[in-house]
Write a structure and sequence with these properties.
Distance between the termini: 33 Å
Number of strands: 5
InterPro entries: FAD-dep_OxRdtase, FAD/NAD-bd_sf, MTOX
Keywords: FAD, Flavoprotein, Oxidoreductase
Organism: Patella caerulea
Number of helices: 4
Order of helices and strands: EEEHEEHHH
Number of domains: 2
Largest sheet: 3 strands, antiparallel
Pfam families: DAO
Helix content: 25-40%
Structural class: alpha+beta
Strand content: 15-25%
Protein name: FAD dependent oxidoreductase domain-containing protein
Strand order of the largest sheet: 1-2-3
C-alpha cells in the first residue's frame, strides 16, 4: 500500500481482497462533480498516468489491467472532516460528522469523539478546526484544495524559510 505525492497529483495503491491485483488510482484527480453531473466514463489519460507511474516505480508490479472504474466521494473544499452539533438551530442533542472522503481510516477516533460529545456534551480532542462554521464551509468562493502532496510541499517550503 502506498500514497505517492507527485507534482501534479497524488496516487495511491491498495490491495484488493480476494483478487490477485491491486487498485491503483489518482486521488481527487478528476473534475469536481455532483451526484447528478458525474459520469462513469473511464479517463484513459488518468489510467495511463497510473500505469506509467507504476512502470517507473515498480515495473515488475505492472500486469494487465483487469478492469477500470470511476469512483466518487464527498469532500469539503479544504478536505477536512466536519464534526459539529446542531445546538445553534435548537437541536442540542444532535451531533454529526461528515467524513470528507477518508473517514473510514479514522472511524475509531471519530466514533470516540462522537460518543464523548453525545455523553458528555464535549470531547477531549480539539475539534475547533472541524466546525461547520469554518471558512471552507461558509465561503462559497473558498478554493478547492484536494491535493495532499501540494500541501506537504508548501509546508516543507515554509519550514525551510524559517
Amino acid at each position: 500500500m502506498f500514497l505517492y505525492h507527485a507534482k501534479e497529483h497524488d496516487y495511491y495503491q491498495i490491495p484488493i481482497h480476494g483478487n490477485s491485483c491491486s487498485k491503483i488510482g489518482v486521488d481527487a484527480g478528476g473534475p469536481p462533480v455532483t451526484g447528478n453531473t458525474r459520469n462513469f466514463i473511464v479517463d484513459p489519460v488518468r489510467e495511463e498516468k497510473c500505469v506509467s507511474l507504476m512502470q517507473s516505480l515498480a515495473p515488475k508490479f505492472v500486469g494487465p489491467i483487469m478492469y477500470t472504474k470511476t469512483c466518487l466521494y464527498t469532500m469539503t473544499p479544504d478536505r477536512h472532516f466536519v464534526i459539529d452539533k446542531c445546538d445553534k438551530e435548537g437541536w442540542s442533542d444532535v451531533i454529526f460528522c461528515c467524513g470528507a472522503g477518508h473517514a473510514f481510516k479514522f472511524a475509531c477516533l471519530l466514533g470516540k469523539i462522537m460518543s464523548e460529545m453525545a455523553i458528555d456534551g464535549k470531547t477531549q480532542y480539539d475539534i475547533a478546526g472541524f466546525t461547520r462554521y469554518r471558512e471552507a464551509i461558509t465561503d462559497p468562493n473558498y478554493p478547492n484544495d484536494f491535493q495532499w502532496g501540494k500541501q506537504i510541499a508548501e509546508q516543507a517550503a515554509d519550514r525551510a524559510k524559517l
